[in-house]
Amino acid sequence: MSGVVGWLKSNIFIVVFAVLIIALPVGGFVGSSMWNKKIKTKAEEELSSKKRLVDGVSRVTYTLPPIAEGETPIEEARTPNAAVTRFFLEQREARQAEIEEVVTRAVRFNKTADRAVLEPGLLPELEDSREARRRVRDLGERIVGTEEQPSLFAGLFRGINAGEPAPEPEVARRVVDAYRAEIDRAGGDLNDLTAEEQEALNERMKGVRYGVYARRAEEISVFASVEALKVPGEDGESVIPVEAPASPDETDVLRWQMNYWLVEDLLRAVDLANRTSDGLPTEVPRSPVKRIVSITVDGLEMPEKPEEDASAGSSSAGANNPFGTGGGNPMMNNRGMMPGGGMAGMGGMTGMGGGGGGDPVATHTGRSADDQNGVFLVRNATITVVASSDDLVRVLESFGAANFMTVTSVNLSEIDRWADLKQGFYYGPDHVVRAEIGVEAAYLHFWLADVVPDFIASAWGIEKPMEDETATP
Questions:
Q1: 432-444 and 337-338 as β-strands: parallel, antiparallel, unpaired?
Q2: Adjacent-strand bridge partners of 386
Q3: How big, in percent rounded to 5, are the helix, strand and coil portions of the chain?
Q4: Choice between 358 and 18, residue whose per-residue pLDDT is larger
Q5: How confident is the model at residue 315 (pLDDT cuts 50, 70, 90)?
Q6: pTM reported for the whole predicted model
Q7: What are the domain boundaries of the chain?
């Protein structure tokens, strides 16, 4: 035993290396197994984490939202793909551009290129100064008009080549001149005429009178004047008031302005109907609309101006949702416009309302004058005309061609054309009827916000633009 121990001592390195040769493979195996398990666990955790991330984006939903009422959105869930992503992005940008183009045209059509206020500087806010009050009183007098200075509305009628029948003094003068000429040809003595000759002479004088009426009808496109605006409507007020108020304010100015624009659109529709396919105005005997008997409009309900500073009362109606109904649209800004200037959700114009008064019951259009939708102000009007029965459809279609107007009712009745002829209204050979036409007109808040005082805008649900939004299509 002592010899073995001695050998081991004398050969210590051999013993150590022998032990290492035997122990290292076993220890290495055990150590590597433990190390491999840790590495494997860590790798599996990283792989699982990355797999969860990949699984989370392995299927995305591509969407093209609808841009018209009733349109179904296009949706596709699939693995992300650069080409597909680019396609949907291009399509969304194209739709956005289409929306903006349509809405820009709609605003321009609704506002019209020459739509301007009657008196600059009075709207939307009226200054509290003597000069401003004087200008408002002056505007009221110009709205009512005088014999020396006709109403401002008279210019609208001149613009559609409207006029009144030949004045009776002029008719009488021409008849008398013709009668005297006949007497001179007869020798200057009525007693020399037989009863038959006297009756024939009277018939010729009737022909002269009717000829004067007919010549006047050839000079104009439609019989009409501001007298058609002095007929009281259902609310008892007429478009042109009997007299100007003694102390008018911005509510009066806005009412005059809104009524002026509504009458302007109605007369534009008549003008479109009374033109040839080449755009030339027709004369009364060939015009579909022969005469405008009356125009009445709904009464605009004006809120009372608050005692405090009205300029601080900028409307916030629809700030989160320009449509005034549940569920905002995050793609729209505070004027109901898509980014870049377009307005979303016009659809079929159903459910549109306004701040004006009138019957709260919606018509077949789905609109009610008492609704506040944040997009349109709805006005109701009734225009009574004498029209050719054969061209009545053309007359009705002209309202939609003139602006955002919809015919809501038509009441037809016969007229006594001979009684009208005695008053100078010569209609020509066409069969004519009296048509009482109800019309709804819609005006976009987008441009009305620039002329409506803040406290009225708040009551009507018209959202005022932000200070940095000054561009108008």
A1: unpaired
A2: 291, 434
A3: 45, 15, 40
A4: 18
A5: very low
A6: 0.73
A7: 2-57, 130-161+220-460
